[in-house]
């Protein structure tokens, strides 16, 4: 199932080809500086993880540095809670923005004064003007894909008049929306982004870092390229929807370079395809809706594709790295199947996760010919391929827990597990023969009865003279640890829950979380929070980081052993 090799990954990463070519021509004198620029208006998700791997991964591979820059120019939607969560997420994924003792951690809001100065410079040089049309008027004058826009009646204000108005906008003399500052480019451009885009708007809003110092805020297209240039970014990597904005990115930097503000070469914007993952949502706005409306429990709900959700689900940073390597980086938009993410987790955990037994749907098994207080030590390898990791010990007792569906009174054809008269092996224990079952007044089976064969213990001489077809899991009812187990599945029942603007809430999978009372063997009961384990037959699980404690474990199912979806 494991697909690509490293060669395939490198070949598919067209950005590496650009960097290699730049190295060949000496464009950047060997420098590679990238940046990851989240807006702190939500928690990061698996799509951001791709961007983080692209940006930080390239910087690491080329001996460069990747900046973490908060693109915090929309005061209403941003907060320090989000800033902190983003810092945590990037660190957890294993990346650092430090190089040679310098922390390359930046905030676009730290550039507000500089950005304001550059805007004034654009005004002075005739490249920007204050427009006093209403938002509706501006929209109406913008034209369409087939029609050019109409120049604003304010387009020919003099630089002096514009500078004065812009200073008064900053000073707070006007209400939100009364004026904007626009770049003076080309109202007839076939690229609508070039039709005098807005570069500043008035917002009387409190900013989480600059407080009330500002009431004019720069727009993304202006802020982003300038921040890149200020930080000497070489390759500014972003997603494809910014392709049409690239001429604007270059336009601002060219005008400021002409004005002597930036030296060439100027940072180069390069676009790559967004990650779209099936059975998931990767829009911050919709994730916020899922959390705020209570469709999930919190930002770190293990059903969410947020990075903290994935973490709590049991994903490891290396599984996410593996996933990003496998999907590669390209210019072509496509959907990645959720099973690719899940398989990366299995492939990451299989070689390392210790094994243990958990009985998720417990049914009592009474071994009638075993002494009441008898204790027979048994053991099993911690990991089947790593004998050096030793054995896990547990005991065989008269009362055990087995899985409810490992017993039936009326076996269908081909059923090799427990039914009256049949023999099975209790894995790592003894061969037993079923002799009947106890029932309650309603006829429900409440316990199964059996006899064991004392000379059949696994690993002892002659044990394999017993030929049985069934091999079932068990834990000792006296020694097993009671555990809460949360069985997670995909949050959405449809592969593209929000395709075509559909109401994605309609596609929620009502069975994405099921909680059961289980019993686990003592080695698993003692696991520390966030330890991962393979429960034989059931899948990979993690001790919940919030709710689990040794002796009082809570497990989340990270992923089943096999991909059973849609089959
Ligand atoms: P959303 O639309 O969910 O709010 P965004 O693009 O507005 O996402 P930002 O905080 O601006 O979120 O994103 C920071 C960086 O992560 C940007 O460079 C953006 O292109 C990138 N990014 C966001 N979503 C994805 C995705 N699904 N795949 C790859 N990169 C992404
Ligand atoms: Mg964005």
Automatic annotation (TrEMBL):
<dbReference type="InterPro" id="IPR001412">
    <property type="entry name" value="aa-tRNA-synth_I_CS"/>
</dbReference>
<dbReference type="InterPro" id="IPR004514">
    <property type="entry name" value="Gln-tRNA-synth"/>
</dbReference>
<dbReference type="InterPro" id="IPR020056">
    <property type="entry name" value="Rbsml_bL25/Gln-tRNA_synth_N"/>
</dbReference>
<keyword id="KW-0963">Cytoplasm</keyword>
<keyword id="KW-0067">ATP-binding</keyword>
<feature type="binding site">
    <location>
        <begin position="274"/>
        <end position="275"/>
    </location>
    <ligand>
        <name>ATP</name>
    </ligand>
</feature>
<dbReference type="Pfam" id="PF03950">
    <property type="entry name" value="tRNA-synt_1c_C"/>
</dbReference>
<keyword id="KW-0030">Aminoacyl-tRNA synthetase</keyword>
<dbReference type="GO" id="GO:0005829">
    <property type="term" value="C:cytosol"/>
</dbReference>
<dbReference type="InterPro" id="IPR020058">
    <property type="entry name" value="Glu/Gln-tRNA-synth_Ib_cat-dom"/>
</dbReference>
<feature type="domain" description="Glutamyl/glutaminyl-tRNA synthetase class Ib anti-codon binding">
    <location>
        <begin position="353"/>
        <end position="452"/>
    </location>
</feature>
<feature type="binding site">
    <location>
        <begin position="39"/>
        <end position="41"/>
    </location>
    <ligand>
        <name>ATP</name>
    </ligand>
</feature>
<keyword id="KW-0648">Protein biosynthesis</keyword>
<keyword id="KW-0436">Ligase</keyword>
<dbReference type="InterPro" id="IPR014729">
    <property type="entry name" value="Rossmann-like_a/b/a_fold"/>
</dbReference>
<dbReference type="Pfam" id="PF20974">
    <property type="entry name" value="tRNA-synt_1c_C2"/>
</dbReference>
<feature type="binding site">
    <location>
        <position position="239"/>
    </location>
    <ligand>
        <name>ATP</name>
    </ligand>
</feature>
<feature type="binding site">
    <location>
        <position position="220"/>
    </location>
    <ligand>
        <name>L-glutamine</name>
    </ligand>
</feature>
<keyword id="KW-0547">Nucleotide-binding</keyword>
<dbReference type="GO" id="GO:0006425">
    <property type="term" value="P:glutaminyl-tRNA aminoacylation"/>
</dbReference>
<dbReference type="GO" id="GO:0004819">
    <property type="term" value="F:glutamine-tRNA ligase activity"/>
</dbReference>
<dbReference type="GO" id="GO:0005524">
    <property type="term" value="F:ATP binding"/>
</dbReference>
<dbReference type="Pfam" id="PF00749">
    <property type="entry name" value="tRNA-synt_1c"/>
</dbReference>
<dbReference type="InterPro" id="IPR020059">
    <property type="entry name" value="Glu/Gln-tRNA-synth_Ib_codon-bd"/>
</dbReference>
<dbReference type="InterPro" id="IPR000924">
    <property type="entry name" value="Glu/Gln-tRNA-synth"/>
</dbReference>
<dbReference type="GO" id="GO:0006424">
    <property type="term" value="P:glutamyl-tRNA aminoacylation"/>
</dbReference>
<feature type="domain" description="tRNA synthetases class I (E and Q) anti-codon binding">
    <location>
        <begin position="472"/>
        <end position="544"/>
    </location>
</feature>
<feature type="binding site">
    <location>
        <position position="71"/>
    </location>
    <ligand>
        <name>L-glutamine</name>
    </ligand>
</feature>
<dbReference type="InterPro" id="IPR050132">
    <property type="entry name" value="Gln/Glu-tRNA_Ligase"/>
</dbReference>
<comment type="subunit">
    <text>Monomer.</text>
</comment>
<feature type="short sequence motif" description="'KMSKS' region">
    <location>
        <begin position="281"/>
        <end position="285"/>
    </location>
</feature>
<dbReference type="InterPro" id="IPR011035">
    <property type="entry name" value="Ribosomal_bL25/Gln-tRNA_synth"/>
</dbReference>
<dbReference type="InterPro" id="IPR049437">
    <property type="entry name" value="tRNA-synt_1c_C2"/>
</dbReference>
<feature type="domain" description="Glutamyl/glutaminyl-tRNA synthetase class Ib catalytic">
    <location>
        <begin position="32"/>
        <end position="349"/>
    </location>
</feature>
<comment type="similarity">
    <text>Belongs to the class-I aminoacyl-tRNA synthetase family.</text>
</comment>
<dbReference type="InterPro" id="IPR022861">
    <property type="entry name" value="Gln_tRNA_ligase_bac"/>
</dbReference>
<protein>
    <recommendedName>
        <fullName>Glutamine--tRNA ligase</fullName>
        <ecNumber>6.1.1.18</ecNumber>
    </recommendedName>
</protein>
């Amino acid at each position: 199932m494991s697909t690509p090799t490293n060669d395939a990954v490198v070949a598919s990463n067209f950005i590496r080809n650009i960097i290699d070519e730049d190295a060949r021509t000496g464009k950047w004198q060997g420098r590679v500086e990238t940046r990851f620029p989240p807006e702190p208006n939500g928690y990061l998700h698996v799509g951001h993880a791709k961007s983080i791997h692209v940006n930080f991964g390239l910087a690491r591979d080329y001996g460069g540095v990747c900046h973490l820059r908060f693109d915090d120019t929309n005061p209403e939607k941003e907060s320090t809670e989000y800033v902190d969560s983003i810092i945590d997420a990037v660190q957890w994924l294993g990346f650092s923005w430090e190089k040679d003792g310098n922390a390359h951690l930046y905030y676009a809001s730290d550039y507000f004064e500089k950005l304001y100065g550059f805007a004034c410079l654009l005004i002075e040089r005739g490249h920007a003007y204050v427009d006093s049309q209403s938002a509706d008027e501006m929209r109406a004058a913008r034209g369409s894909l087939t029609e050019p826009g109409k120049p604003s009646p304010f387009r020919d204000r003099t630089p002096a008049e514009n500078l004065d108005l812009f200073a008064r906008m900053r000073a707070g003399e006007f209400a939100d929306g009364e004026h904007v500052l626009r770049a003076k480019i080309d109202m007839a451009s076939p690229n609508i982004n070039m039709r005098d885009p807005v570069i500043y708007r008035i917002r009387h809003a409190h900013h989480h870092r600059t407080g009330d110092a500002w009431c004019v805020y720069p727009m993304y297209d202006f802020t982003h390229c300038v921040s890149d240039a200020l930080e000497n970014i070489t390759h500014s990597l972003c997603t494809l929807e910014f392709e049409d904005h690239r001429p604007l990115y270059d336009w601002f930097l060219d005008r400021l370079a002409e004005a002597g503000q930036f030296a060439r070469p100027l940072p180069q914007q390069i676009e790559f395809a967004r990650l779209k993952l099936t059975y998931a949502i990767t829009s911050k706005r919709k994730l916020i809706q899922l959390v705020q409306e209570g469709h999930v429990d919190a930002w770190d709900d293990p059903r969410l594709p947020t990075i903290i959700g994935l973490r709590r689900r049991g994903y490891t940073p290396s599984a996410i790295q593996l996933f990003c390597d496998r999907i590669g980086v390209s210019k072509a938009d496509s959907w990645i199947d959720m099973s690719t993410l899940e398989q990366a987790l299995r492939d990451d955990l299989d070689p390392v996760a210790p094994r243990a037994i958990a009985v998720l749907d417990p049914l009592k098994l009474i071994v009638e010919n075993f002494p009441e207080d008898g204790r027979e030590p048994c053991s099993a390898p911690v990991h089947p391929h790593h004998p050096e990791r030793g054995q896990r010990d547990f005991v065989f007792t008269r009362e055990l827990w087995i899985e409810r569906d490992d017993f039936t009174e009326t076996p269908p054809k081909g059923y090799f597990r427990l039914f009256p008269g049949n023999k099975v092996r209790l894995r790592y224990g003894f061969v037993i023969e079923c002799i009947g079952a106890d029932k309650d007044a309603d006829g429900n089976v409440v316990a199964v009865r059996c006899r064991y064969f004392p000379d059949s213990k696994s690993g002892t001489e002659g044990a394999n003279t017993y030929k049985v077809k069934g091999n079932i899991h068990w834990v000792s009812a006296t020694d097993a640890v009671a555990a809460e187990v949360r069985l997670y599945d995909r949050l959405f029942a449809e592969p593209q829950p929000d395709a075509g603007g559909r109401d994605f809430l309609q596609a929620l999978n009502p069975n994405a979380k099921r909680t059961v009372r289980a019993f686990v063997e003592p080695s698993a009961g003692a696991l520390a929070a966030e330890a991962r384990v393979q429960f034989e037959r059931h899948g990979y699980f993690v001790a919940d980081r919030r709710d689990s404690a040794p002796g009082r474990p809570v497990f989340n199912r990270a992923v089943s052993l096999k991909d059973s979806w849609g089959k």
